[in-house]
Amino acid sequence: MRAPGGTRKRLVGTTKPSPLTRATATRTTTRRGRWKIWSASMMHARSSAPDWKRRSAFRTVTRSRRFADTSTNSPEGRTTMAKAARKKKVPIDALRALSADPNQVEVRVGGRTVATLLRQRAVELGLVEGGSWTPALAARVDAAAAESLAREAALAFLAKRAWSAAALEARLVKAGHVARAARNAIRAMVADGWLDDHAFATARVEHHRRRGSLSEEALSELLQADGVGERDAADVARSGAATAAEVRLEVRRAKKAGESAKRVAGKLARRGFDPDTIQDALEHAGYALDE
To answer: Can you give the pLDDT at residue 99?
Structure first.
């Protein structure tokens, strides 16, 4: 661009200014121009800095990034801790009990909390104050912490409604927990009595029977769909299925309500009853078989 009179006019902020004219140029340009001048000045300063300064700045940034990546909840942080443990023995600073739950302790290593575990679990892992924090121990603690998180989530789900062991494990995996941690947490809850598939199946039988009589086969399929194991489902369905007397009573009530024999027979067939049981119930209720 040329100014009046034929002389070339330099656009302020579009070329790299010298350090001597930086302050003057910054005061006379717009915000966009100031940004361009500042960026250019920084590039000029970096390019003109001695090699030892550039290397020192790079080491500082590298150390800062390494420190920022050592979060206890990130794989990078756990890897960094494991590498440090290989080079130098890192002691366990403390096992600090939580004020909200004294049964849980915080494991402190290197001045920060690396895991929160049940006190009994910490004892089983051999965690003691002043003990060596090794990569193998860090891996075991990490797995135990994942199980603890899965257990807390499972208890929260149980507070809302009843679950079978298999269904609750699938729900934990769906929520983002590691499959192995969810499986181990569910096994521990079964051993502790928090989960009982037989009791859950019994409660589900009462729920399903509210809709009417059910055969043993149909009831077993419903329980398995609820997440109950095949063996427990079969045992509970055997004792919870409707008897012949209960089926006859239901058919008599349907006849008094004015339902046709065809409708009643279809309803019983969909619930898994065999033709002989249906015919016997219809005859005792007074239905004409040719109806």
So the answer is: 86
Q: Going by DSSP bridges, is the β-strand pair 104-109/112-118 parallel, antiparallel, or unpaired? A: antiparallel
CB 239 within 8 A of CB 273: no
Q: Give the whole-number percent of the chain exceeding pLDDT 70.
A: 68
3-state SS of 27-59?
Answer: HHCCHHHHHHHHHHHHHHHHHHCCHHHHHHHHH
pLDDT digits (tens, 9 = 90+) for 214-273: 888 888 888 988 888 888 888 888 888 888 888 889 888 888 888 888 888 888 888 888
- Of the ranges 28-32, 96-100, 131-135, which one carries the lowest mean pLDDT score? 28-32
Question: Which one is predicted more confidently, 32 or 200?
Answer: 200
pLDDT value at residue 157: 94
**Tokens standing for residue 5:** 């009179």
Where along the chain do its domains lie? Answer: 244-285
The amino acid at residue 189 is M
Biggest alpha carbon distance in the chain?
Answer: 119
Residue 184 CB contacts under 8 Å (≥ 6 apart), including other chains: 147, 150
Backbone angles phi, psi at 109, to 5 degrees: -135, 130
CB 107 within 8 A of CB 138: no
What are the respective helix, strand and coil percentages of the chain, to the nearest 5?
A: 60, 10, 30
